[in-house]
Design brief:
Elements lengths: L7 H4 L7 H8 L5 E5 L5 H14 L8 E5 L2 H15 L7 E4 H11 L1 H8 L6 E3 L1 H14 L9 H13 L4 H7 L3 H19 L2 E3 H14 L1 H10 L2 E4 L7 H11 L5 E5 L14 H4 L1 H4 L4 E5 L7 H11 L21 E5 L2 H19 L6 E5 L5 H10 L4 E3 L9 H14 L4 H10 L8 H14 L3 H6 L17 H23 L2 H12 L10 H18 L7 H14 L14 E5 H4 L4 E6 L10 H6 L5 H14 L2 E10 L1 E4 L2 E4 L31 H4 L52 E4 L3 E11 L2 E8 L3 E6 L5 E3 L2
Parallel strand pairs: 1-7, 1-8, 2-3, 2-6, 4-5, 6-7, 9-14, 10-12, 10-13, 11-12, 13-14
Antiparallel strand pairs: 15-16, 17-18, 17-21, 18-19, 19-20
This protein binds a DNA duplex (15 and 10 nucleotides) through helix 4, helix 5, helix 11, helix 27 and helix 28.
DNA sequence: AAGAGATTTATTTTT
DNA sequence: TAAATCTCTT
């Protein structure tokens, strides 16, 4: 298989790989482009290649830099390499682009302060912090937030940063009045960030480059260090990432990039597909390797995916192949509206669970917009099918969690205006301070170049510098500001020596945050529980010797690791509800793609832009392609003939993407409800005789002549004509004091039972896993005493 | 300063 | 529809 003789102990690194994969693993020198179709073993190649470099080539771990887009991908790769290469990979530079950027800035505090004006305690501002600053910048630019929505401003600013334009350069390049306005906002925005000693996500990629420009010796050091650079999902890199990678790889030129232009779905976020398309002209000596064998999906799914993506004009001509079995037909189903659609999905899943022992975690339901998850959730909730929503409100994004984190951030970086405003707005100690009082202190802070926190602390600790007065407040405002100042000073002193969980306790005490939650309202108690959860989260850093460093690392983790998969699994497995975007990189035996309608998938904006700019429409198609190729065994596609959008029903027209699917690959086409509205080509016309109104799905819908398998007769999958609502499992009656047993959490005691709509919520104090709130109808709880 | 009512506006979101 | 933001009132 391999033309290179390998040492016996490394032969295993290429065992079981196909020829192309082996080449990708073994072509270690020079630039390499791997165009990897979905399910073609991309991650395998990346991990085996790194193991190969370490073991066969004797490369030191810290000479390898591997960059991914998500923490999840990085973690997964690290785990797999560890298993392949043993655990001598500590020094490996593997992480997201952004974490690499931070690491680089942190590693060079002196130069960073000197050349970039960023103090070592700088914070990373996330999207919502950024919005905050942008709003302020719009105000300062003397604009009405109605003539320039903050969202648009921040996206334009981000665009400018991604083209590596400073506010001045951007201002110099404007051609429209619109951009002129943006330029003014950008200028203020940049200044506000610097004053807050904070950076945004774009800066994490941009500033390292700036640093290299201003301190070439730093670039030289890293260029020398990283002999081998690997980049995952190269099709999603933007211009700045491209420049960064190119600069780093310049010395050794051992740049290995993997990607799939057909899975580029982030152009709207400045991803530049040209980076991958033009790799070979950037590096004329590049080796190109195409991975086109799909090991993931049935032949039918691969065929459909290929047929769908083939319609895009702007793409490399490639063909995905597979040696897998033909598999089941793809089910296409029209439903009356979004409720029926959701019920159909749930009913099908239950049927598969019953007839084939399908596990819920083998199933994913994918949709274009997050709003679509609501009605699906509702349907899952009333049935007893467990589910989880990926990318819902994340833990660190909850208001009550952010509030406490704001205090932590402020203690770490006293210049953090955004957090300061949050502390004043959310905590009782901030009562009595309005925008005017805060402005006074903000002005003081700007005038005397002092961190904004000190403006408050000045009321209890007069500034050491005699030239710096106490901010000019009087009366009630002064009293209130003094209160804030004294609280900040106390917590600041505490932060010097306390572990993070001790600091948490202090914060809660000093700010009186506990009292902000009404113990008699269950929702508030849940929010308080989240606050306590944060304490547990913080305690993970308690073992660290240096409290300041612990706080720094914790805050960085919060900013950079939006842990999506912290979601508890109940042990039984859950159906995954997920947007098509978030589904990239995942795979499931059974996939439902819902809402295949014009205006939804493809999304209306792409439809509207179609004739002046075909790009968005092609990206929508790629998104559909990504969805299809997540499926291993079975694929269900649904659309509704009427859908409630923005509060009103409008006719649903089946997506144009459906037309690309070969009829022979489809199974069930049936219509159980009268449709209205004018549709595109009627399905009935395309698949003659498919319709069997009122039938029971048995035998219906096999148009490819295939015979049903014994154990997984596809007719079983064929929908019943009327997806009836599913009754909730009768709940047991729980009462406080009972001992219960949970599959995952073990033994515990019921401490409370609260009525919920058609259900009960049971509060259980588990012996090992703390107190949990569980829905009576869903939780696998047994009463044991 | 703070809360109540009115108005506006709707993708996707790795970091 | 529903969330978020704005305006007006107290």
């Amino acid at each position: 298989m391999a033309d290179q003789v390998t040492r016996p102990d490394t032969a295993r690194l290429v065992r079981g790989l196909n020829d192309d994969q082996v080449r990708a693993v073994q072509t270690t020198e020079g630039p390499v482009l791997v165009v990897a179709g979905p399910g073609s073993g991309k991650t395998r190649v990346l991990t085996h290649r790194i193991a190969w470099l370490l073991e066969e080539k004797g490369v030191l771990p810290d000479q390898i830099l591997a960059m991914t887009f998500t923490n999840k991908a990085a973690r997964e790769m690290r785990d797999r390499i560890e298993r392949l290469a043993g655990d001598e990979i500590g020094g490996l530079w593997m992480g997201t682009f952004h974490s690499f950027g931070v690491r680089l800035l942190r590693q060079n505090p002196g130069v960073v302060a000197d050349r970039l004006g960023l103090q070592p305690n700088f914070l990373v501002y996330d999207d919502s912090d950024q919005q905050n600053i942008v709003k302020r910048a719009i105000q300062l630019a003397g604009l009405d937030p109605r003539q320039l929505v903050p969202r648009r401003a921040s996206s334009r600013i981000s665009g400018a940063k991604n083209q590596m334009l400073s506010p001045k350069e951007f201002a110099a390049s404007v051609t429209s009045h619109d951009d002129e306005v943006i330029a003014r906002v950008y200028e203020h925005y940049a200044r506000l960030l610097r004053e807050a000693n904070a950076v945004d996500f774009d800066d994490l990629l941009r500033l390292p480059i700036e640093l290299f420009d201003r301190a070439p010796q730093v670039l030289d050091r890293y260029q020398t260090q990283f002999r081998y650079i690997l980049v995952d999902e190269y099709q999603d890199t933007n211009r700045v990432q491209y420049v960064l990678v190119t600069a780093l790889a310049n010395r050794w030129r051992n740049l290995f990039v993997v990607g799939d232009p057909d899975q580029s779905i982030y152009a709207w976020r400045a991803a530049d597909i040209r980076n991958i398309l033009e790799f070979q002209s950037d590096y004329p000596d590049a080796t190109r390797i195409d991975l086109e064998v799909n090991y993931r999906s049935t032949a039918r799914i691969v065929k459909v995916a290929d047929a769908v993506i083939r319609e895009n004009k702007q793409r490399l001509d490639r063909k995905l192949t597979t040696t897998n079995d033909e598999g089941e037909p793809i089910a296409l189903r029209e439903l009356a509206d979004q409720n029926h659609e959701a019920q159909f999905v749930v009913a099908e899943i239950r049927r598969l669970m019953q007839t084939q022992g399908l596990r819920p975690d083998a199933v994913a339901v994918m949709y274009r917009t997050t709003a679509q998850s609501r009605v699906l959730e509702e349907a899952f909730r009333v049935s007893d099918v467990p589910y989880r929503v990926v990318g819902g409100v994340k833990f660190y994004e909850r208001k009550e969690v952010r509030d406490v984190i704001a205090v932590l951030r402020l203690l770490h970086n006293p210049s953090d205006v955004v957090s300061l405003e949050r502390v004043i707005g959310s905590f009782a100690i901030g009562k009595g301070l309005g925008p005017k009082a805060v402005d006074t202190i903000r002005d003081w802070s700007t005038a005397y170049q002092r961190p904004i926190s000190e403006g408050f602390i000045a009321f209890v600790e007069p500034p050491a510098d005699a030239d710096v007065p106490v901010p000019g407040l009087s009366g009630a405002a002064k009293t209130a500001a003094t209160k804030v100042g004294s609280a900040l000073a106390r917590m600041r002193d505490g932060a010097k020596t306390a572990t993070l969980s001790e600091l948490f306790d202090q914060i809660v005490e000093v700010t009186g945050y506990r009292n902000a939650f009404d113990g008699s309202i269950e929702e508030e108690m849940q929010r308080w529980a989240n606050v306590l959860e944060l304490r547990t989260d913080l305690s993970r850093y308690d073992a660290m010797a240096d409290p300041t460093e612990a706080l720094a690392q914790y805050l960085e983790q919060v900013a950079l690791v939006a842990d999506v998969d912290t979601m508890e699994d109940d042990g039984q497995g859950q159906v995954t509800l997920i947007t098509l975007h978030s589904a990239k990189g995942l795979e499931f035996p059974v996939v439902f793609i819902v809402g295949l309608e014009e205006g939804l998938l493809p999304i209306s904006r792409a439809v509207e832009a179609e004739f002046q700019d075909p790009q968005p429409m092609e990206e929508e198609r790629r998104l559909f392609y990504v969805g299809i190729t997540r499926a291993q065994k079975m694929l269900f596609l649904t659309y509704a003939s009427s859908r409630q959008l923005y509060g009103r029903y409008s006719p649903g027209v089946e997506s144009r993407f459906i037309e690309s699917i070969p009829q022979t690959a489809l199974s069930t086409v049936s219509r159980s409800y009268p449709r209205f509205g004018n549709s595109r080509t009627s399905l009935r016309d395309r698949v003659g005789g498919a319709e069997r109104l009122g039938g029971h799905g048995r035998g219906a819908g096999r148009y490819d002549g295939s015979q049903p398998g014994q154990s997984d007769d596809f007719s079983q999958l064929s929908p019943s004509m009327r997806a009836e609502p599913v009754a909730a499992r009768p709940s047991q009656t729980y009462s406080a004091g009972q001992k219960v047993f949970h599959n995952k959490f073990g033994e515990g005691q019921v401490v409370g039972v609260e009525p919920r709509r058609d259900d009960q919520e049971v509060v259980v104090a588990f012996d090992r896993h703390g107190t949990k709130r569980l829905m009576a109808s869903l939780a696998p709880l047994d009463i044991i005493a």
